[in-house]
Request: fold
Amino acid sequence: MNNHDDDYYFISYKSTEDRPVLAADEDTATMPYTSAKLPFGGRTLKFFNGALNKKNKHLFKKDPPDILFYGSDIAVNDDVYEKLSSMDILNLAIHPAIYVDHNDIWHENYWFLTFTEKFDCWDRDKSFYAPDPLTGFGDIRYEVISYHLNSNLLDQTNINERKLFKMGATTEGWILVHKSLAGLFNRTGVELVPVKDFGTTFFP
Reply:
């Protein structure tokens, strides 16, 4: 049995004052863009900087990061998209997206990643989490403080079906990437957090 904790990274953001935070515009907010594959040729998703206010506009850079975050979900630039689109990633749907920055400049080179199914593969015996689950989401979710992956389940799952996935049964729903694909996400705006370091990174 392999120890898969060494094989995966959480795709996370660096908490900085100049980090743009995606917020959907009114039209996009009506679409199930975080959970469903939208019709091909449909409306392009549109986001603005939800972290922007009257006092902090000067903090944001002219060129936005390669990868932008909407909670734990991400929008990637053309370069990342072109590589991902040639791969057969299980449950992954990719939607074209526009990011309107702090200067009202439209960046039309983004793609929002959606997972139509989540992969619940964290180990209940080894992970540290709040024991009482949260309901009301249509499923059961736990607040996980630190992770260990379920090695038995991962051993039984083909590597091509678990190179990139959204973690299931958690309140955060972080995206995880296998080490063989991690370099693709080592971009501006991203911090790749090893599974074994997750608790110390977010809860020092």
